[in-house]
């Protein structure tokens, strides 16, 4: 039983050339001032370091020493041996395991047989002597009477070996000296200094960035950010009355609600440079690198002001200090300290706006979210119906839709969807239509896409007759309890086709936006969750493992009702929360439980009482409608998928939660 899904946002295009026209011309000229130009020329015209010249010279010396200035053609040892037997070799010189000499008569190059363009052999030659071949070669040279035979191995190889050893030692010394010099100056450029440079990506005003017109369903956040745009375009308008624009804007919201999209749209509207970086890109295994990257990022931002710096997933580096391992010497904390220092270091005249996004505002350090750093907090909620309709229109612009597609109806049936979910829904519908060879996307493609997104793809499992029957009664139990629980959402579809990780799914689809949950609805939801298990016990007199996920969800919900929301007369109006934060913060390691063992035992007993009451409620409802339970199960076994129209024929019209009147179930 599922009803909700994920979200996402588009990535900006690659940067091209800066546009210095328009109202920001004066501000952007700061980057092209004579002093900056001369500084950049100086940095580009740095002299070649002496160490690099020395390294190249030593490398050439080693290569020369290896060859020892040898001239002539290199030949295979087998070819040389044949020429030696033919008495065509003279002036032989041994140089270690290399033999050099002259031909009495220059032979034909043996490579001519395979390569017509092979060069002819020279008068002199050299070849590599194989191992264990020295004695046989000396005997052959003595027997052939070769003229001017001599061995200079000792003289030549000693000098070569000394040069190679000296050169290798110098290379290692220069390497370590270079490493030490670069590490002593973390902001230096070069092969090692660039490691500490900021990896932020720059998108300039001339790039084709997103604007607010392309962001649908987020009117309130856009209104808040419009002030930031106005300040970047015309700062004098605010400074005239002594107003100060927020230095930082924190975007908070669930994953996929469009926080990154909003930041890019803000930069696109303001027509200023936009620097984007992910929080995890600051952190490296070397201590101090993150802080150096922060310094470099803010230095570049100040040089190119007015501009926007966007830090995505700031919780990766901005988590509260003093929690978990590492202490003050932790690389993450050092990076956070540098961010705090840089944001406080802006003067009021620095037109640099820092926009950060996170879906975990509860783990951020208080020093980061205080006024003066991130002054403005903007919550990016899930879109309303009008917002979902606008998002569907944006993502379906390039999708050919059939006449039966009703985007308004799709928007009404996708409560709880984020922008990324809707984009995925449109894409899945287009893919479904393509697989079926259609020229346009139809309404049935959107229905199939919704099933795929919420319930997963169909599995290839083939259930036995007994498994099929037990699954049918399990889903029928969920369905019947939900149908006769007026506070719950209407049942949209029931299936016993294995999808995702489930053997069957009962899909409820909300028909209205809800922002508050009452105790009565929660008790009915618990009964519905335990309805499948109750049906198994009622019909087969045994429980199966199919209810494992239902039990987990029901237990979590009942624990929140009892210990978080004060919905128990026994516990009363008290909240007993423990180990609620995520384990990575490490807070539970030093926080003691704030209530006694007796209270914990009482909470557990009350949770058990709530669950037993919900199970009894489901069992009584199934006993009361046993005939309808069997009919739903038989219809599922026969069709495998039934919708609200089929249920209405079996169960009659559903009781609406908004009144005591009888209302039709959603189709």
TrEMBL record:
Record EC number: 3.4.24.-
Q: Where is this region: Disordered?
A: 1-44
Residues binding ATP? 253-260
Q: Which GO terms describe its molecular function?
A: ATP binding; ATP hydrolysis activity; ATP-dependent peptidase activity; metalloendopeptidase activity; zinc ion binding
Q: Indicate where this protein resides in the cell.
A: Cell membrane; Membrane
Using the UniProt record, name the top-level EC class of this enzyme in a single word: hydrolase
Q: Where is the composition biased (Polar residues)?
A: 30-44
> Active site located where?
475
UniProt binding sites for Zn(2+)? 474, 478, 550
Give a single Pfam family match: FtsH_ext
Its placement in the membrane is given as: Multi-pass membrane protein
Q: Which InterPro entries match?
A: AAA+_ATPase, AAA_lid_3, ATP-dep_Zn_Metalloprotease, ATPase_AAA_core, ATPase_AAA_CS, FtsH, P-loop_NTPase, Pept_M41_FtsH_extracell
Q: Which SMART domains does the UniProt record give?
A: AAA
PANTHER family according to UniProt: AFG3 LIKE MATRIX AAA PEPTIDASE SUBUNIT 2, ISOFORM A (PTHR43655:SF2), ATP-DEPENDENT PROTEASE (PTHR43655)
**Entries under NCBIfam families matching the protein:** FtsH_fam (TIGR01241)
Subunit record text: Homohexamer.
Q: What is this protein called?
A: ATP-dependent zinc metalloprotease FtsH
Q: Which organism is it from?
A: Rubinisphaera italica
